[in-house]
Automatic annotation (TrEMBL):
Its EC number is 5.6.2.4. Has both ATPase and helicase activities. Unwinds DNA duplexes with 3' to 5' polarity with respect to the bound strand and initiates unwinding most effectively when a single-stranded region is present. Involved in the post-incision events of nucleotide excision repair and methyl-directed mismatch repair. The keyword DNA-binding applies. GO terms for molecular function: 3'-5' DNA helicase activity; ATP binding; ATP hydrolysis activity; DNA binding. Keywords: ATP-binding, DNA-binding, Helicase, Hydrolase, Isomerase, Nucleotide-binding. It comes from the Bacteria. This is DNA 3'-5' helicase. It catalyses: ATP + H2O = ADP + phosphate + H(+); Couples ATP hydrolysis with the unwinding of duplex DNA by translocating in the 3'-5' direction. It holds the Pfam family PcrA_UvrD_tudor. ATP binds at A50, G51, A52, G53, T54, G55, K56, T57. InterPro entries: DExx_box_DNA_helicase_dom_sf (IPR013986), DNA_helicase_UvrD-like_C (IPR014017), DNA_helicase_UvrD/REP (IPR000212), P-loop_NTPase (IPR027417), UvrD-like_ATP-bd (IPR014016).
Length: 797
DNA sequence: TACGAGTTCTCTATG
DNA sequence: AGAACTCGTA
């Protein structure tokens, strides 16, 4: 940081002198005119509308470097927020590289959440918290809510805790505290939402805990109620940069506006066409309204794309053009040539996975006259994570290496969470949620009854569960095996806690500590060894060693990895802090693999070869999205399609299947409406190579493009008959009495005798959205789209 | 209290 | 299809 001490010289420098200095800055020459404009407009509000692949991160990082180089700010005076840890890391890395030194001094470059944790630790007392509060993850949150719901005598069957969690999350995204909850929300969660919200917040306070939503909300509350605190930070953060501004929710928006309220030196970067997080509270309105919020804002559009071929860009533009209310941007490139976007229909999800697997292998080895690509140059982007399984199954069986990005994350795994609960309990013995998690894991004969007694003892004495358990034992409220085991657990926990403390006090002394648990002469126990000791002595490791289920071995390996991860940290609490915010699962693995991930996880990434499977109505666009948010939902889905296509640099392949298993039930699918929106001039329709011996691919395809009635020809192939036979068996062997609410859809009711073009006559046995479940007289149980059904009686004879 | 069979619910996505 | 959860039995 000392290299910036003479930076004051710039403060008084004339514009001309500054311009001179700027000319000497080589990094500016690497920018195109628009990027350069965005970088050089240092003061006042700036909105950078950056389309996909237009060098947004480059502009953003260069801007930071420019701020530093011109002496406008020191590294610790720049507030730069991103949404993901990955983006933050990337930016840190790039700034560091450009500055030619490690930029240790950018402490305020991070995610909204990590920055808010830092701030909240400093001002925790202003919202009645202690600065060492714990951060609950979704799992803890749900368990806590479940307790409250049950305590309030609500049937959590009818009103699941997850739903309440969703409602509360929604409120927190809007920065609505229990006190300023709008009246319009009174009905939420059967009218009990607001009261439960209040109870939840009180309970969090008692536990000295916050959830993710609180991090932002508490800071907004603090800034609003304590002007002195706000002013302090307004002065300190003299320049603010925001990445992915289109993804900000109301709380984040308020937070930013408060912080930028003085100098207004705020630069927001975003792309309204890539706003795909409306479901978690993001407000596209924030970016659309920027110029109103910050009058005199400088708006820069980055439209030159450096990533994709013209065909890919044209396809993406064609799709996104269907959306209304865009800020308006058109990507262009001076790159020429390239392959058209490829489109192919398949029989079912399995066939689709198989075809993509073969295609990947062909591209890998460059056979069929195609260029050869490494596996890590290829990615499969799906709408919903359950689509991944078909690919994993297939790739496992053909031995194609793949990597799932953003799947079940390391720190969310059962064994990791259990182990972490032990660590948490040692660091903060009053962590009741952690205690509940591990009292009986491994089995200690402490079931519901015993746990209830512990709860009771704790509540009566107004102490945390661990103390409550002690009291219970002293009062002989528990006897036998349970009592012995509980005593041992408590003793262990205390001993381990003492070992951490001994470590802290005597750190660096190299002295031998005898705190009762360790033999004299043993070397000092560091947190890594301690973690291992805890896992071993608690019997947790043993539990998995004795477990003969197939995944037990993997779990043990994960535990080893967890202990190894501790090496990067000074102590246990530092580690816990990290984990609560960084849920990344970036096991850096250099080997070449195909990436499989959701479209959401793919935002910000790019690959030479991209596969976009599952483009079927209901799956993509997702039915749920459209049901819940109507036109808005559909537009968000369309943006998702846009994001997907624009991930591709050279080859983009879109596919759909005519049949797919959903919830274990076969369903016929229609090609996505987005397929109709692809401009034909930029699309190459592929024919499936002789699978099932038919040319259904071609037939289905053209039908897909022109009429979307792909069903017709598909159903005459041998594969279809085989499928039908399987369906028959399925329904015979396991008669499914899937009795769904006897709700009428627009025209048909349960029990109606109906007619379907292809399947013939049948009776409606279930209704699921716009789909009807029909027991066909010939074809068996099928789910079909309601509009393809006519009442049997409607047919004129 | 532990375990296994049966039943119901899920499948958007993030820190 | 698989996970999560419930309930009855040993």
């Amino acid at each position: 940081m000392s290299s910036f001490d003479d930076s004051d010289a710039y403060e008084g420098a004339s514009l001309a002198a500054r311009a001179m200095a700027a000319r000497a800055m080589p990094y500016l020459d690497e920018l195109n005119p628009e990027q350069r404009a965005a970088v050089e407009a240092l003061d006042g509000p700036v909105l950078m509308l950056a389309g996909a692949g237009t060098g947004k991160t480059k502009a953003l990082t260069t801007r930071i470097v420019h701020l530093l180089n011109t002496g406008r700010a020191r590294p610790n005076e720049i507030l730069a927020v991103t949404f993901t840890n990955k983006a933050a890391r990337e930016m840190k890395h790039r700034v560091g590289r450009m500055m030619g030194e490690a930029v240790e001094g950018m402490p305020w470059l991070g995610t909204f959440h990590s920055i808010c944790v830092k701030l909240l630790r400093r001002h925790a007392e202003l919202v009645e918290l202690n600065s060492n509060f714990t951060i609950l993850d979704t799992d803890d949150q749900i368990r806590l809510l479940k307790q409250l719901i049950r305590a309030a005598n609500i049937d959590d069957k009818r009103w699941p805790a997850r739903a309440l969690a969703g409602v509360i999350d929604h409120w927190k995204n809007r920065a609505w505290t229990p006190d300023n909850l709008p009246a319009s929300e009174a009905h939420a969660y059967d009218g009990k939402g607001p009261a439960l919200y209040r109870m939840y917040q009180t309970r969090l306070c008692e536990l000295n805990a916050v959830d993710f939503g609180d991090l932002l909300m508490h800071m907004v509350t603090i800034f609003q109620a304590h002007d002195d605190v706000l002013k302090q930070y307004q002065r300190w953060f003299c320049y603010i940069l925001v990445d992915e501004y289109q993804d900000t929710n109301v709380a984040q928006y308020l937070w930013l506006r408060l912080l930028a309220g003085g100098h207004q030196n705020i630069c927001c970067v975003g792309d309204d066409d890539q706003s795909i997080y409306g479901w978690r509270g993001a407000e596209v309105g924030n970016i659309l309204r920027f110029e109103k919020d910050f009058p005199g804002a400088h708006v820069v559009r980055l439209e030159q794309n450096y990533r994709s071929t013209a065909h890919i860009l044209a396809a993406a533009s064609g799709v996104i053009a269907g959306n209304k209310g865009r800020l308006g941007k058109e990507l262009w490139t001076d790159a020429e040539g390239g392959e058209k976007v490829r489109l192919i229909g398949h029989w079912d999800g399995e066939t689709e996975a198989r075809w993509i697997g073969e295609e990947i292998e062909a591209m890998q080895y460059g056979t069929r006259g195609l260029q050869s690509y490494g596996l890590d140059k290829m990615a499969i982007l799906v709408r919903a994570s359950h689509q991944m399984r078909a690919f994993e199954d297939r790739f496992l069986s053909i031995g194609l290496p793949y990597r799932v990005i953003g799947g079940p994350r390391f720190y969310e795994r059962l064994e990791i969470r259990d182990a972490m609960a032990y660590f948490r309990l040692v660091v903060s013995p009053s962590d009741d949620l952690a205690f509940e998690r591990i009292v009986n894991t491994p089995k200690r004969g402490l079931g519901d009854k015993a746990q209830q007694k512990i709860q009771m003892a704790a509540r009566e004495n107004g102490v945390p569960l661990m103390q409550g358990a002690r009291i219970l034992l002293q009062n002989k409220g528990l006897t036998g095996k349970g009592a012995t085991e509980l005593t041992r657990l408590l003793d262990n926990l205390e001993r381990w806690a003492m070992m951490t403390r001994a470590r802290v006090i005597d750190a660096g002394e190299g002295e031998v500590i005898d705190d009762g648990g360790i033999e004299v002469g043993e070397p000092e126990v560091n947190h890594i060894e301690l973690a291992q000791i805890m896992l071993d002595e608690s019997g947790y490791t043993e539990m998995w060693q004795n477990d003969k289920s197939p995944d037990a071995q993997g779990r043990l390996e994960n535990l080893k990895e967890l202990v190894k991860a501790l090496e990067q940290f000074e102590n246990l609490s530092g580690f816990l802090e990290h984990v609560s915010l960084i849920m990344d699962n970036n096991s850096e693995d250099a080997s070449e693999k195909v990436s499989i991930m959701t479209l959401h996880a793919a935002k910000g990434l790019e690959f030479p070869v991209v596969f976009l499977p599952g483009w079927e109505d209901g799956l993509f666009p997702s039915q749920r999205s459209m049901d819940e948010s109507g036109q808005t939902g559909l537009e968000e889905e369309r943006r998702l399609a846009y994001v997907g296509i624009t991930r591709a640099e050279e080859v983009c392949t879109i596919s759909f299947a005519g049949n797919r298993q959903v919830f274990g039930q076969w369903q016929s699918q229609l090609p996505s409406r987005f397929i109709d929106e692809l401009p034909e001039a930029h699309v190459d329709v592929l024919t499936a190579p002789g699978l099932y011996g038919g040319n259904y691919g071609a037939a289905g395809m053209s039908a897909g493009i022109e009429t979307r009635a792909a069903e017709a020809d598909v159903y005459s192939s041998p594969g279809w008959r085989r499928m039908q036979a399987r369906n028959q068996q399925r329904t015979v062997s396991k008669p499914k009495t899937n009795v769904i609410d006897v709700q009428a859809t627009s025209a048909h009711t349960m029990g109606d005798r109906v007619f379907h073009q292809k399947f013939g006559y049948g009776a409606i046995v279930g209704v699921d959205g716009d789909k009807l479940e029909i027991e066909f007289e010939k074809a068996g149980l099928k789910k079909v789209i309601a509009k393809f059904i006519t009442g049997a009686d409607d047919i004129p004879f």
